[in-house]
Amino acid sequence: MSDATASGTTAKIRVRDLKKSFGSNEVLKGLDVDVAEGEVVCVIGPSGSGKSTFLRCLNKLEDITAGTVTVDGYDLTDPKVDLNAVRQHIGMVFQHFNLFPHMTALQNIMLAPVELKKLDKAAARAKGMELLKRVGLAEKADARPASLSGGQKQRVAIARALAMNPGIMLFDEATSALDPEMVGEVLQVIRDLAAEGMTMVVVTHEMGFAREVADRVIFMDAGVICEEGAPEAIFSHAEQPRLQDFLAKVL
Amino acid sequence: MVTKILNLYRLATKRGRAALGAVLTVLALFLGIAAASAAVMPAPAPASAPLASAVAPAVAHASAADVKGKTFSVATDTTFAPFEFRNGSGDLVGIDMDLLRAIAANQGFKVDIKSLGFDAALQALQSNQVQGVIAGMSITDKRKLIFDFSDPYFDSGIQMAVAKSNNDVKTYSDLKGKSVAVKRGSEGETFANSIKAKYGFTVKALADSATMYDDVKAGNSVAVFDDYPVLAYGVSQNNGLKIVTPKERGSSYGFAVNKGQNADLLTAFDKGLANLKASGEYQKILDKYLAAPETAKQTSFFQLLANSFPALMKGLGMTLLATALSLVIALVLGIVFGFFKVGESRILRIIASIYVEIFRGTPLLVQAFFFYFGLPQLTGQPLNVLSAGVITLSLNAGAYMTEIVRGGIQSVDPGQLEASRSLGLGYVTSMRRVVVPQAIKIMTPSFINQFVITLKDTSLLAVIGFAELTYQGQQIYAANFRTGETLLIVAAIYFIVIFILTQLSNVLDRKFNK
Ligand SMILES: Nc1ncnc2c1ncn2[C@@H]1O[C@H](COP(=O)(O)OP(=O)(O)O)[C@@H](O)[C@H]1O
Ligand SMILES: [Mg+2]
To answer: Where are the transmembrane segments (chain A) (predicted)?
Structure first.
């Protein structure tokens, strides 16, 4: 596999022989993945196959056992690399939102820009309001997370992840904890981001959505990438029996 | 790591600061009350002043020059009336006290009297916390091995007393199969042990006279053996007993210093004693307490309350002072070690765990003894009773606070720290802005709980002679023998103070941690 993408630029994210073990349990068994600038990669696979662990290695929320993860040219396994600086360029959205319950929606969004001295308070507030508007929640600026619906919480969480103007967004099953009627509003926000050209790695169980927004789909099983390719190829022309099995169950 | 913690502590979030503020406000309030009660306390009356001025000039020529102007710490029993006890206004009086003060005045030195209890006084002397002990102590061969004694200043003797209503026990022979109470380490104990086989009774050693009398009144023991002046004084104060046997030939009391040390103090004591005997002052002091001890009138509960209130408030002030100081230190210890426990460094985690296990795994009482008696023996550096008490309580409460802090931080969803770290915020900032404010909210009820426990635990410091509320109560019933009523008052004071403070803490908690 070449280190350059089709367009000739270096990959935004480059993963080489990534291995991750929890104790003696090897969860990732040597992954190689490239994500190009502006590319939307969806990761699918059965529960427990290592999708979340893979995603969490991309911003080093998990220690990496072996292999390399390079983001924007910075090797995360290099101890000299300032992880906090790299993480500012990678937004992450969690299955259970992980909003800060003791802050309002706006404060959740303003926290990082203000603490990291990227913006002064007034500018951060303006930026926060703009982001809230973008996810359709301007009127909830002063609401605490506890008073928001699941869909609203996840949209605030996305706005928070965007506050540092990241070049990359990671989504870990952003809609699986939601009631069905709220899935759409969150997917719409992600869809908009894709349309704007954001580089994204999206772990999802929404096969229709993956098919619609993904430039490429990765199917993981038991810690390895079983199959990857254009959505059409994965969903309509699955070759591996394990992928066929999986799709038969979820579709 | 330490700087990280300090940062965290200093830079609490707005809400965190509010909650922390709540805790500190309550502490400040504690300090305020302690200070206020300290302010209303009457200054202790210099009980020996008149005596001293009456005696000093006449015999000043025969003084030992090298003790002049020096101050000596002398330990005594808490209550061994009429040798040492507290009068109605909470001042230490008695034969030993008057004698010692008169001798000091006569010889031109000063004494700092520490009322510790008999066992504790001897330990304090051995650990050089004090230079001398005067506590109605018999001069025995065994004690002469470790102490040097003055000339005898009193010849004692043992008598037996039984409950006033008991008409069955009149002689030692009536004790067969029964239990008698004695004071631990006293002459009475030695005497009782010397005849127990012959008369077939068992001996139960207790810590002080008041407890012995209560044991007899409660029917646990049938008789007490005690020094005759002590028994006579107790009976005159309505201790509920009567004396049934004649005085046994007993030993003599002496003032003690550590063997081979403070010889000049001992010489001065002997000279002063001789001077007082010559001037007649010695006999006056004995007569004051022995010839015709004025019989106490049985006063009402409310008179008891009124009489004991100033001393008890003095004690409450000390209780609150020790509590407040200990809690502030414990809070700091708890935060430091709590963060050690949740941190990434294995070594710091182990250090914090060892600290917690040691202080949770040993009794507070043992810790108090260790810091007051044990540590000075190891280091040679005496520690005053407030410092020893506060160190004990802080380290003990700090261990529990550590667990509260650890538990509070660990009960915050790990996803919170991850979300914050994923935004590019560092560990310290994430803890400070995201985890700690949520943890404080969770910890507040446990903090309030610990603070009540620590307040109550101060009562254990009575055993090392720290003059807090319980100690003052003990002093009062030791002199008036009204144990039940006095303890009821003491308990009521604790209850009221704790009730008010918990209500207040809860209000603050609701206000700042909603
Ligand atoms: N912190 C952890 N400690 C130990 N095992 C873990 C941890 N996180 C995940 N695992 C294990 O790693 C495997 C993959 O988990 P995960 O990446 O969450 O899978 P997925 O997201 O595909 O469902 C599972 O077997 C899971 O039990
Ligand atoms: Mg997962």
So the answer is: none
A148-180: pLDDT as tens digits: 999 999 999 999 999 999 999 999 999 998 888
Give the whole-angstrom CA distance, residue B94 versus residue B72.
Answer: 19
| Residues from chain A contacting residue B420 (CB–CB below 8 Å) | 100, 111
Q: Is A84 in the pocket of ligand 1 (CB under 6 A)?
A: no
Distance CA A87, CA A112 (A): 11
Is any ligand 1 atom within 6 A of the Cβ of residue A155?
Answer: no
Q: Where are the domains of chain A?
A: 11-248
pTM of the shown model: 0.70
For residue range A23-66, list pLDDT tens digits in order.
999 999 999 999 999 999 999 999 999 999 999 999 999 999 99
- CA B58 to CA B107: how far, in whole Å? 11
Give the count of beta carbons closer than 10 Å to the beta carbon of residue B70. Answer: 16
Q: What is the ipTM of this complex?
A: 0.92
For residue B444, is pLDDT > 70? yes
Instruction: Give the sheet arrangement for strand B110-115, strand by strand.
Output: B110-115, B71-76, B132-133, B256-258, B147-149
User: Which amino acid residue places its CA nearest to atom 26 of ligand 1?
Assistant: A48
Chain B CB within 8 Å of residue A53 CB: no
- Determine the residue of chain B that is closest to A165 in CA distance: B423
CA angle B92, B85, B490 (to 5 degrees): 95
- CATH no., domain A11-248: 3.40.50.300
Residues in chain A closer than 8 A to B418 (CB atoms): 61, 94, 98
Q: Is A47 a pocket residue for ligand 1 (Cβ < 6 Å)?
A: yes
Using CB atoms within 10 Å of the CB of residue B143, give its burial: 0 to 12 exposed, 13 to 18 middle, 19+ buried.
middle
Residue A94 forms contact with B (CB below 8 Å): yes
Interface contact A98-B429, CB threshold 8 A: no
pLDDT higher than 90, residue B81: no
